């Protein structure tokens, strides 16, 4: 067996190992993307809950303050309009938070798919490169005979 053929086999094995390492790296990156996606979702939900709690606290304080003035909170159109506007603002904030979460999740899904494809492509490319290396080594061995 020719030394060139041996080195071709060693080189092909290295190429296969490099392709597998790239695939494993992509798998790890995909796992990190999934983890970040879940953490971002939880954070967005916590922000929305915080906004809701702040709204509830402010609403109770507003109603208490308005009631302390002696006015009937339930029958005043101005007060009802004020409270409705506060409610609308709070829910717009919550809606924006949830929209940001939605788009961040889509972005993470796209990155996840791209990373998976990158790993598969790297492994496939390493297989073809290794096959080419083995073929060239064999051709060189055959020509040397």
Q: What is the CATH architecture assignment?
A: Orthogonal Bundle
Number of domains as seen in the coordinates: 1
The strand count comes to 0
The ordered H/E elements are HH
Q: State the CATH topology.
A: Helix Hairpins
Provide the gyration radius in Å: 31 Å
General form: rod-shaped
* CATH level 1 name: Mainly Alpha
Helix content: over 70%
Largest sheet report? none
Structural class: mainly alpha
CA-CA gap between termini:
10 Å
User: Treating each run of at least 4 consecutive H or I residues as one helix, how many helices?
Assistant: 2
Low-pLDDT runs: none
SS strand fraction:
under 5%
Tell me the quaternary state: single chain
Mean pLDDT: 91
If you had to describe this structure to a student in words, what would you say it looks like?
The chain contains two helices and no strands. It is an all-alpha fold and 145 residues long. It has helices spanning 3-68, 77-144. It is rod-shaped and about 110 Å long. The mean pLDDT is 91. The protein has one domain: Helix Hairpins, CATH 1.10.287.
